[in-house]
């Protein structure tokens, strides 16, 4: 179904009790879908909300749920509906899969595929060996996603960075998927120019920061930065602020290939990067052309068997410390969300924890304790459903007591599903 706003939501749950409860509390019909999910650990948090791991109790599928506070949009809900619409259109093996969405009076919930294989660089650092041909495999997958977005859907992602590149599973041959379409845009024409701020410093193109107008080529710039970093472990740019970054990009070529680290990297690789990192966005190669580049299509065996991992690890030696800091930052983000948005302490959507062991309500059960595919899944699901039903019943009794007149006068709307 096309996503155009809250009125477009259709309740297909067939759950009269949930609909009845929603009528009493003033919740949108789609809110009944929330009872289909059991919350797990918090995966991340930002200025607008959090991302939680969850399990669909109907099909036992583990998913990610992005929970966004409506008040952060301040009347600009269309931005959220645009993201939902873009995700719904995407159907590519290297793009995170959209599953569902629903809303409450004060939040949006976006349900997507859960990628459990880890972020791109975390996966690389954990490997025993990392070769140039491994970089080629990664770039091919990312380019496949970009080519699909740019040429089949006319979408520019605008926030390509390693943190948004995730492996679906921990399997060695797992596919890489592109996630986070929060600032992606569908262009009205292939050459439409955008002027709104977008992207992350270090990966976004100069034209984005200068505000001179940008489009699909800004994704190609980000691809070039990622490719450079994949090969040597450090960024082609040193700047940590916009002014210094723009000064670094004043003349061509904008990047330097330091001999100490690039001597064993092929010339084909450096030429590929230079095709992406052109100052003039209209001189950058397009996704469909880069897919035909010789670096990606030559016999991989001709490239050096030199292990890139030692160099990459050298520039990622602070990773564990950074991860520890990230846990603290995550908790602080959630705390700040609570303070700024006046989130109640009993709001289970915004739990403080990010670890693997949680006590409390059924909505806070740690998914790591649920053995996927185990023989006792059926019994666990029945227990979880019983807990959910008991919890829902208690809420209904409380709401019914407070809304006696509505209960006495309630009638099922004609044409609604049973």
TrEMBL record:
Which SMART domains does this UniProt record tie to the protein? Answer: S_TKc
Identify which top EC class this enzyme belongs to: transferase
Upper taxonomic lineage:
Eukaryota, Fungi, Dikarya, Ascomycota, Saccharomycotina
Q: Which organism does this record belong to?
A: Wickerhamomyces mucosus
Q: Which UniProt keywords apply?
A: ATP-binding, Calmodulin-binding, Kinase, Nucleotide-binding, Phosphoprotein, Serine/threonine-protein kinase, Transferase
Instruction: State any single GO MF term.
Output: ATP binding
Reactions listed under catalytic activity: L-seryl-[protein] + ATP = O-phospho-L-seryl-[protein] + ADP + H(+); L-threonyl-[protein] + ATP = O-phospho-L-threonyl-[protein] + ADP + H(+)
EC code(s) of this entry: 2.7.11.17
What is this protein's record name?
Answer: calcium/calmodulin-dependent protein kinase
Q: Name one Pfam family in it.
A: Pkinase
PANTHER family to which the protein is assigned, alphabetical: SERINE/THREONINE-PROTEIN KINASE
Similarity annotation? Belongs to the protein kinase superfamily. CAMK Ser/Thr protein kinase family. CaMK subfamily.
Write out the residues that bind ATP.
Answer: 70
**Annotated Protein kinase domain residues:** 37-296
């Amino acid at each position: 179904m096309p996503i155009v706003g809250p009125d477009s939501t259709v309740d297909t749950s067939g759950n009269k009790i949930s609909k009845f409860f929603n009528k009493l509390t003033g919740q949108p019909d789609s809110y009944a879908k929330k009872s289909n999910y059991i919350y797990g650990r918090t995966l991340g948090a930002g200025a607008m909300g959090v991302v939680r791991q969850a399990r669909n109790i109907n099909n036992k599928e583990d998913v990610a749920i992005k929970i966004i506070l409506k008040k952060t949009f301040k009347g600009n809900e269309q931005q959220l509906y645009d993201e939902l619409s873009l995700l719904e259109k995407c159907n590519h093996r290297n793009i995170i899969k959209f599953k569902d969405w629903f809303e409450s009076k004060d939040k949006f919930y976006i349900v997507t595929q859960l990628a459990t294989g880890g972020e791109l660089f975390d996966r690389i650092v954990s490997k025993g060996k990392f070769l140039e041909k491994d970089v080629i495999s990664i770039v091919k997958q990312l380019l496949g996603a970009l080519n699909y977005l740019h040429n089949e859907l006319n979408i520019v992602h605008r926030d390509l960075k390693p943190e948004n590149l995730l492996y679906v599973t921990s399997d060695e041959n797992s596919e890489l998927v592109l996630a986070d379409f929060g600032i992606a845009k569908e262009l009205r024409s292939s050459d439409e120019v955008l002027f709104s701020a977008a992207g992350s410093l270090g990966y976004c193109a100069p034209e984005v920061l200068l505000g001179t107008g940008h489009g699909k080529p800004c994704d190609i710039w980000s691809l070039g930065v990622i490719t450079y970093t994949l090969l040597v472990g450090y960024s082609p740019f040193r700047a940590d602020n916009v002014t210094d970054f723009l000064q670094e990009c004043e003349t061509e070529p904008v990047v330097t290939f330091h001999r100490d680290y690039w001597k064993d990297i092929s010339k084909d690789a450096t030429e590929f990067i230079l095709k992406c990192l052109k100052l003039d966005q209209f001189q950058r190669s397009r996704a469909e052309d880069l897919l035909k580049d010789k670096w990606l299509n030559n016999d991989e065996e001709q490239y050096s068997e030199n292990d890139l991992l030692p160099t990459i690890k050298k520039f990622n030696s602070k990773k564990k410390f950074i991860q520890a800091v990230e846990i603290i930052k995550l908790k602080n983000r959630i705390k700040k969300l609570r303070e700024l948005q006046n989130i109640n302490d009993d709001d289970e959507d915004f739990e403080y924890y990010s670890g693997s062991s949680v006590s409390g309500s059924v909505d806070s059960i740690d998914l790591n304790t649920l053995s996927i595919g185990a023989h006792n899944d059926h019994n666990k699901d029945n227990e979880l459903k019983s807990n959910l039903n008991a919890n829902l019943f208690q809420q209904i009794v409380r709401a019914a007591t407070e809304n006696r007149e509505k209960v006495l006068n309630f009638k099922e709307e004609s044409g609604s599903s049973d």
